[in-house]
TrEMBL record:
This is 3'(2'),5'-bisphosphate nucleotidase 1. PROSITE patterns: IMP_1 (PS00629), IMP_2 (PS00630). The gene is BPNT1. It is an enzyme of class 3 (hydrolase). Belongs to the inositol monophosphatase superfamily. One of its GO terms (biological process) is phosphatidylinositol phosphate biosynthetic process. It comes from Sparus aurata (Gilthead sea bream). CDD domains: IPPase (cd01640). Mg(2+) binds at E74, D117, L119, D120, D275.
């Protein structure tokens, strides 16, 4: 490679390190026990101090380096001076060494739209915190006790949490970074937590080992905390061998690319563009697909509606099969934009 790296590669390289910093913020707020929970549209739509600080950190850090990009974040926050210790100036040298796919090498800052979900799986994050900071002391469990069970549940819930930074060009998700702040929780208290995955269609996906779910089983992953009758009906219509209910859109895509699930099925509105942009880029980079329940692609232009009104259907393989199983009643309830 000659000359300076492509703008989009520099942006992905920065987003990688910025997502790591956001992941560290998410861990720190959890340990403080002071979550500062705010209800947005209702009890299942929450915002915590971690969502706020992580978004401020991501947006301010990226804007400082790339002043002309458009960033759209999940949280509505007042414009205010960001504390310097929230700024991340680093980048991943490894990403800068990669060759940018030719079609993206000439993209300009002002053509890029960045979709930020500072904390995906907020519901699970708050539930985990409640368990960990429970008066019976689940933070310091004794083996075999009830608190040990609470502790395990809390850690499992935390594994649902991710930080999502997606990059779009001409309405398409062209790069994505996912940080999973509590990854490796199974290794115990001394372990270093967290990992970062990233991907770009045309270049590949990194930070995890791609695995396909068993071809002879339909394992469906769906929402844990935002279900309703239509969501359940649609999952049942897939005739699943197994259903895995977990939190977070990012986490459900991780289930797909690591071979634990064959399809992510969410026949409801609720997910937004910041939930799907980064996951879609990584999934597409390994040959998968993310669409609405009709099999139509979502667009990520700066001016699109934030809500993914026609649901989310994502697979690594056999997308058409799952589209074909969506019941007529669901198709009617969820219209493509
Ligand atoms: N009915 C709803 N209301 C608000 N947010 C919803 C929702 N259904 C899904 N979402 C959002 O979509 C993401 C994935 O949902 P789920 O975990 O239920 O699969 C979560 O993102 P956040 O945690 O970033 O808000 C969640 O809040
Ligand atoms: Mg939210
Ligand atoms: Mg989200
Ligand atoms: Mg969020």
């Amino acid at each position: 490679m000659s000359g300076s790296p492509a703008v989009v590669m520099r942006l992905v390289a920065s987003a990688y390190t910025v997502a790591e910093k956001a992941g560290a913020i998410v861990r720190k707020v959890l340990h403080s026990g002071e979550l500062g929970i705010v209800e947005k549209t209702g009890a299942n739509d929450l915002q915590t101090l971690a969502d706020r600080l992580a978004q401020q950190s991501i947006c301010a850090s990226l804007y400082r380096r790339f002043p002309k990009i458009t960033i759209i974040g999940e949280e509505d926050l007042p414009a205010e001076e960001i504390k310097e210790d929230l700024i991340e100036n680093g980048h991943s040298e490894e990403i800068l060494q990669k060759t940018c796919p030719a079609e993206y090498s000439g993209l300009k800052e002002e053509e890029l739209v960045v979709w930020v979900d500072p904390l995906d799986g907020t519901k699970e994050y708050t539930e985990a915190s409640r368990l960990l900071h429970h008066p019976t002391g689940a933070l310091t469990p004794h083996k075999g006790s009830d608190t040990s069970q609470l502790h395990s549940t809390a850690l499992w819930l935390l594994d649902n949490v991710t930080v999502l930074i997606g990059i779009a060009y001409e309405g398409k998700a062209i790069a994505g970074v996912i940080n999973q702040p509590f990854y490796n929780y199974q290794l115990g208290s001394g372990a270093e937590l967290g990992r970062t995955m990233w991907g770009m269609p045309g270049l590949g996906a990194f930070g995890f080992t791609l695995k396909e779910a068993p071809g002879d089983r339909r394992i469906i992953t769906t929402t844990r905390s935002h279900s309703n009758k239509v969501v359940t009906e649609c999952v049942d219509a897939m005739e699943p061998h197994e259903v895995i209910k977990v939190g977070g859109a990012g986490n459900k895509i991780i289930q797909l690319v690591e071979g634990r699930a064959s399809a992510y099925v969410f026949a409801s509105l609720g997910c937004k563009k910041w939930d799907t942009c980064a996951p879609e880029a990584i999934l597409t980079a390994v040959g998968g697909k993310l669409t609405d329940m009709h099999g139509n692609a979502y667009r990520y232009d700066a001016n699109v509606k934030h809500m993914n009104s026609a649901g989310v259907l994502a697979t690594l393989r056999n997308h058409e099969y799952y589209v074909s199983r969506v019941p007529q009643s669901v198709r009617q309830a969820l219209k493509t934009d």
